[in-house]
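The instructor's notes for this session suggest beginning with a concrete chain rather than abstract definitions. Hand out the sequence below and ask the class to guess, before any prediction is shown, which regions might be ordered.
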Amino acid sequence: MTAALADRAAAHGRVAIDTEFVSERRYQALLCLAQVAVPDPDAPEGVRTEVLDPLGDSPRDPAPLARVLADPDVEVVVHAGRQDIAILRRTWKTEVTHVFDTQLAAGFIGFGNQESYESLVRKVLGVRLKGAEGFTRWDRRPLTAQQLEYAWDDARLLLALGEEIERRLEERGRLDWAREECRALEDSTDERDPDRIFERLPRLSRLGEAARAVARELVAWREDIARSADRPAGYVLPDQALIELARRAPTDRNGLEQIRGLPAQTVHRRGDKLLEAIERGRAREAPPAPPEPGPREPADAPLVSLAQALVRHRSMEEGVAVELIATQSELSTLVSALRRGDDGNEVRATHGWRRELVGEQLRELVAGRLALSADPDGGLELREVT
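After discussion, reveal the predicted structure:
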């Protein structure tokens, strides 16, 4: 059955996919359903939709579909698909290429960048979806008829939605921009990197060298325990307790019991292993101290406000969601870099479609060669400074 779906997707060059998953109280999200839609001229509305149940009594082999997802000649249509892609890459052991995300792409044709699937289907296709099963227990079997209908309906219109959004993007000359933005989703992952987790710990900058070494070992220990127990890492050892353990480095159970926020079940069930991890941390090489954030000059604030106004102006002119273009933090970093004489190339606004839309104008604004002023209608207008 999955081979037939894959064949149709390959023949027509398109496949739509959606997933249902459960992430609560788990180390990583559990894939519960995969809804797949492929073009089929012989099916109702020209679309064939199938629901794959990896938790059912007779789960179908996803390998044929996994190969299609990795085929750069097949467009993979998703909606808000970052987590879907991450889960599929991990569970189906595949790459996902040629992604077209309808939520993200809609941000280039005048919609907000967080528009829901139901909202887009209604506004773009004029269809109201039925059902409200999105937050039910997808990991319980058997599934109800209502759950299956909801899952089927969720994928049924995804191909048509993607096709219509692409048509509108093409009309506006924005399809390449949307495809460029969607390309970044291909690297989505929910694999947990202990080094990255360590770098994001709270109050890490307050730890000395020895404490940082213990903290890094505790991160690795916590990940191993959480993975084997299929529980969130914070369930085993919350971040604040981990930092305090690293700072105090207790050597016995009495010391563990003095750590605020350390779960009693962790001390009871894993206290000895936790003490061993602390001891290993004392012997390991300390990670480097986290970099200090660059100074923010008060004199930059007016320019940052002007940069924000320019971004919003261009957003309204071009119908591109402002959230897609640049955040306030990114604009602050860019202004600071340009005022120091740096090129600011570490900021997204200086690359790709963002550079074409507003990046060069931001450089000219900060350099004083471009001015913003109010027009008679209350909007903004740009003019070159001579």
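Then share the key points. The first strand starts at residue 14 and ends at 22. The beta strands are 14-22, 30-39, 47-52, 75-78, 99-101, 370-374, 380-384.
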